[in-house]
Design brief:
The chain is elongated. The chain is 73% helix and 0% strand. By secondary structure, the chain is mainly α.
Length: 163
């Protein structure tokens, strides 16, 4: 038995590196989640009913993904971040406050997706190289779902997919 393998048969060092990136992703998701909750609570204007529901759908999905990412880090044999201090310190998605405008909220969502999808693509490449099909499948599913959301939110703004 190779002593450099973790409980699920992955190289310990590669699993630690993946966990570090997954923790960064978790931090981004947590800040994104809090931002979207704020958009949901504070939205005003003629698109209130439409966006209020969409933001609730999104934050519920983000909450599930937060849990899945944390559990994947644990499965890899490591510890997920679990403090707001760690989330804020390690997130590239920045905390957003005092937004009640629908278009501005959607633009912030698109900015967050851009950051998150880019990081997920890095993790996808690393998990492929590590032979970590579990993380690979998770990232692949997230990317596919979120690319569609980017198209939909961009369409809401009347834009082509933002570059």
């Amino acid at each position: 038995m190779n002593m450099n393998l973790n409980a699920i048969g992955l190289d310990v060092e590669k699993a630690e590196n993946l966990s570090a990136k997954l923790n960064q992703l978790l931090a981004n998701y947590q800040v994104f989640y809090i931002n979207v909750r704020g958009f949901h609570w504070n939205i005003k204007g003629d698109k209130f009913f439409e966006l209020h529901i969409k933001f609730e759908e999104l934050y519920n999905d983000l909450q599930l993904k937060n849990d899945e990412i944390a559990e994947r880090i644990l499965t890899l044999g490591n510890t997920p971040f679990h403090s707001y201090t760690d989330f804020l310190k390690n997130s590239t998605v920045k905390e957003v406050t005092d937004i009640s405008d629908g278009n501005q909220s959607v633009a912030e969502i698109l900015n967050a997706f851009k950051v998150i999808i880019e990081l997920q693509r890095e993790i996808l490449a690393d998990s492929d190289e590590a032979g970590d099909e579990g993380t690979n499948a998770l990232m692949s599913d997230y990317i596919r779902e979120q690319e569609k959301l980017v198209w939909m939110y961009s369409s809401f703004l009347g834009d082509k997919i933002l570059s």
